Amino acid sequence: TAQTGGFTIAESSRIDAALERVMADQRGYYVLRFQPSADAMQPKIAGPPDFHKLKVEALRPGLTVRSHGGFFGIGDEYRNSTPTMAAILSKAMESPLPLSDIHLDSEASFLTGKNSYFMRVTVYIDGRDVEFNGPPAHMTGGVHLLVRAFNANGESSPGGIDDDRQIDVDGSSYRRTLNYGLVYTTLLAVPKPGPYRVRVVCRDDASGKIGTSSDFVDIPSTKASGVRLSGIVFQHDLGIDDQVAPASVPDVYSAGQTAGFSFRISWNGAKPNMDRLEIRTRLYRDGAEVWHSMSAPVAADAANFARGSLQVPAGLNPGNYLLRVDIEDRYTPYTPTAWQWAKLRVR
Questions:
Q1: What is the pLDDT of residue 77?
Q2: Nearest CA to 229 among 280, 296, 287, 157?
Q3: How would you write the chain as a 3-class SS string?
Q4: Of 84, 178, 287, 310, which is most buried, counting CB atoms within 10 Å of its CB?
Q5: Could you give the percent of the chain with pLDDT greater than 70?
């Protein structure tokens, strides 16, 4: 608040006192106008605009001054000029408000190796929001995708996706596009473990419509001891990496349908006894558990990738749920040694 000329009211338990301070602040004040020099408002050819610090002082006793901490050197003629496509997509990426001209959803999971950390990002695009042209036997469309990962400090990780993708469909895959949507998957490398926010921008080439979405993922350190699970990957997440293609199954499930998923088991220290590990799934909504399965043996391959499934129980209200996958020791049931979360939507 101080950087933008405001002030903080800390008396959160006394709303009346806080409002009195606000009213008192508005009773008597002067507004000062500052005109920067022309050279300070010249835009840079490359890179972000310069930030000019600003400091205002009042020499007369009894007066206090509040002002912005500075300004960016962006003149009106530059700000009002026709923005480039890169600038439009960058603005959509940085905006805290979502854009929904194209309906998007995104899910982020993670994989870890020895001193390496990756995020698997899946983007669901409503196929009805993308324009296709051509004969029914071979229709084409195109989108531009921007995918970035931001750490807890709001800094963008190196790399990311900033590319055009062409979509080719025939009659049957076009019907899947309309019914199930389009799916895009990619793998992003991040420098270290910790919480990340993944943001996605998608622009339809034909119409110019833009949609945005985001997801959060917390990557644990590989140095932590004990058993841990990678992110959960559903069957509807499966696609060809870095290609936009019609989804083969819906990403929304109904009662009685089976949601298949996979994950990787890893550990630091002594290898656990895989024959003793069991899997249990739980469903939560609004922070409360609404269902859990019986335990079953874990079936993992030589690379410790395991598969599981959840049959959506009857009687669930439509909406968004959280699925928790628990790994337990057979001799200590209901005491998970590791778990992981994923989103599940029920129609």
A1: 67
A2: 280
A3: CCCECCCCCCCCCCHHHHHHHHHHHCCCCCCCCCCCCHHHHCCCCCCCCCEEECCCCCCCCCCCCCCECEEECCCHHHHCCCCCHHHHHHHHHHCCCCCECCCEEEEEEEEEECCEEEEEEEEEECHHHCCCECCCCCEEEEEEEEEEEECCCCCECCCCEEEEEEEEECHHHHHHHHHHCEEEEEEEEECCCEEEEEEEEEEECCCCCEEEEEEEEEECCCCCCEEEECCCEEHHHCCCECCEEECCCCCEECCCCEEEEEEEEEEECCCCCHHHEEEEEEEEECCEEEEECCCEECCECCCCEEEEEEECCCCCCCEEEEEEEEEEECCEEEEEEEEEEEEEEEC
A4: 310
A5: 95
Closest to 42 (Cα-Cα) out of 13, 68, 72:
72
At position 298, the amino acid (one-letter code) is V
pLDDT at position 27? 84
Which band of pLDDT confidence, cut at 50, 70 and 90, is reported for residue 236? low
Q: Which comes out higher in pLDDT, residue 304 or 96?
A: 304
pLDDT at 281 over 90: yes
Locate 28 and state its tokens: 């008597």
Instruction: Kindly state the average pLDDT of the residues 65-77.
Output: 81
pTM of the model: 0.70
Angle (nearest 5°) at CA 174 between 170 and 179: 155
The dihedral of CA 107, 112, 118, 120: what is its sign?
Answer: negative
Query: Would you call 144 exposed, middle or buried from its count of C-beta atoms within 10 A (0-12, 13-18, 19+)?
Result: middle
The strand pair at 305-311 and 332-346 is best described as unpaired
pLDDT at 80: 66
